Amino acid sequence: MFKEIRNPFLYFIIFSSAVLAITNCFLPLTDDVSLHLFHSLRMVESGGLYERWAEVMPPTIYVIYSIPVYFSKLTGLNHTFSVNFCVDCLSVISLFLINHSLKKNLIEGGLRKHILMAALCIFFVLPVFTFSVNDRDTLFLILCYPWLINKILKNESSLPVIIFAAIGFSIKQYNYLYPLVFILLIENFDRNYFRRIFSKENLLLAAAIMILNIAFIIKFTAYYTELLPVLLVSYKGIHAYSYGALIYSVFIFLVIIFFLVRSEHLRKYLKSYLILIAISIMVVSLNGNSKYNANHPIALAILIIFHLINSSGKEQTRYTLKLLMVMAVSGVLLLQVLILYFFIKITRNEEKDKVCHQQINNYTKDPYIFLSVENWAFQQRYSDSDEDVYDNKNHMFAIDHLWMLPWLYNNKEDPKAYIVKNYLRKKMVEALGRGKDVSIMVDLSKFRDKIPEGFNILDFFRSELHLENELKGFKKIADIDKCGPTKIEVWRKAGRE
After folding, report:
1. Does residue 389 surpass a pLDDT of 80?
2. Packing angle between helix 243-262 and helix 295-311, nearest 10 degrees?
3. pTM listed for this prediction
């Protein structure tokens, strides 16, 4: 009975991954992915990333998303399809790199096949489960897993694999823990230790990361000189350590380690997996309590499970793990059907969104600034065309997402608060100077109980940022209250009501 489900199991994984890859092309982008695309569009069309438009992420993600932006320009396809299609293509390239590395290093057919099946699940199934299709952590998996798999199996990585890894590790600062910790701990501590950690492959990876960062520092100087200091001081005001994710990650791996220790065939890989388990748990706990961060431990768990399916000496264990994966993948396919259903239902019932869009549009025909603690300005606008969501030439752009405000509000007297205050003041003065008679829209959405509901951003800016002269004469002229739980105040200088 166990042998009969072997080929159908693999065919099921391939079929499910293909279905998810195709359907993902036609789904709308999540908020974070829309944000990355928005900044990539601005970067490609007019430059000014981190100067006129400020965001928390390093430049890598926006450079990656510039590929579908150019693809959209060349083909005329909309941005949503272009992003989804280009990431699918990137996943396929990564699969080819994994397969080429395994063949080149003469990995036996059974193991090669199961690792490729694991990669399919990691690239196409897992992102749907964590609602992170095409997001930063998914791109990290696509770009870095060819290198990580080679390291686990002690294979040599080709130059394309190393370049992919360098780009993937540079998407978020915490990702550098993977090469740094893994390379330092995987080698035995003997007289040849330093020779091995300074191998040609490791030096090539370090050189690629260094070249990438030097290029970014030259091109995007403002991120490193202005925005990064603000991030280091105040971003913790939004994302605390993810203790819940830490607990479930530890539980998952305790179960997996139990099977690893019992498998004689996998004991030689035990050290590699234990190091990666520790790194993935560190990354999850440091990244904050967001669902897409679960990709790190779950992706590693999927790889270990498929490795166990191939190498476990017990038929019953292999059957149990296959059944577990079939149930998990089937659940994700059902989730995708529900996502498609609700997407179609929502697109057929957009009256409330249109009313919100019309209300906001009454005040975006002239120069304006949008200030919000919880939402980005462009995410507040709705239309039938995805291009309209990303573009409004009248938006003067100060700081649309005030992620630093919760920390500043609660730490006004902190010695480092001046770093955040100076940055906010500079951005506000620049934005107010970009247009004549600029209006200010203020989103009053409550942010995770860290700022009182009646908090007034303009009053706070006047007092704490010393913007009394710049904001003199502004008074509230309207409330936008047709956008669900979001309430938006519109402020203009006296005489422009």
Report:
1. no
2. 10
3. 0.86
